[in-house]
Amino acid sequence: MSEHQRTQMLADLGPSDRVARRMLGLSCSLILLMLFAQGLLCTGLIVTDNLLARPGTAVLALAAACGLALPYLGVILWLDRNEPEPPWLLATAFAWGAVGATSLSLFGNGLLGGFFVGLLGEGPLASQLTASLSAPLVEESSKALALVVIYLMFRNHFDNVLDGIVYGALVGLGFAVFENFTYYMRPDHVIGTFVSIWVRGVVTAPGTHICFTAITGAFLGMFRVRRAGAGRMLLPPLGIALAMFAHFVWNTLTLFFSTGDYLGDLVIGFPLAVLF
Fold this sequence. Notes:
Blueprint lengths: L2 H9 L3 H39 L1 H13 L2 H10 L7 H34 L3 H30 L7 H24 L5 H14 L5 H17 L9 H19 L8 H14 L1
């Protein structure tokens, strides 16, 4: 169907059809707002609990998670410099990644992780299955939800492949900021926190959530640009499948780059994994 035919079809909709479309859009918006509100409550409680329990470490973790995200934010905005999208829409993409996607992922990973523990018992195998299977499926789906909504509701601001990459990267960046904060809080001592900041915030940051969700966004952008063709309908599912596969590869094969030495992993193993 050409763009002219699509426009004509929309123009031919009767009043009842237009009301139905508006009601559907309103219903979807309300559901997303409710999910976001619940996510904000969930992430807010996690941050507040850490601030009350270990205020010094929490402030360090929060500053590192946000501060180390700024260079990547600058690169993403620079990519979008020629035809910048509305700041409020970019902020919405980032916020969904940091709040909505993370809270949904906590719930989904908890369910699947509990299933693997129940099946195999507590141990490294159940933990690895959660990382390799649950995390790519749950996290990439929850992040992709924002891209689909932006495409459906704000198509005039979703014009091409670059727009998809920008929105996807911002969703992934928001997700990484909150997830990194929680990882920085896991060690019991400040040295462990600095090591975690080095690994997750400095060395491995370019190879994770920013890139995964940008893949989904790029394929959704291809779907937007390509007006016809049998393969067009395969682009969105192919994009999220590739994002999940990249996430799976990262979570599964990083261990193969281990040098067997703690310091060697920090300066050699993890950088090699990022390059791979």
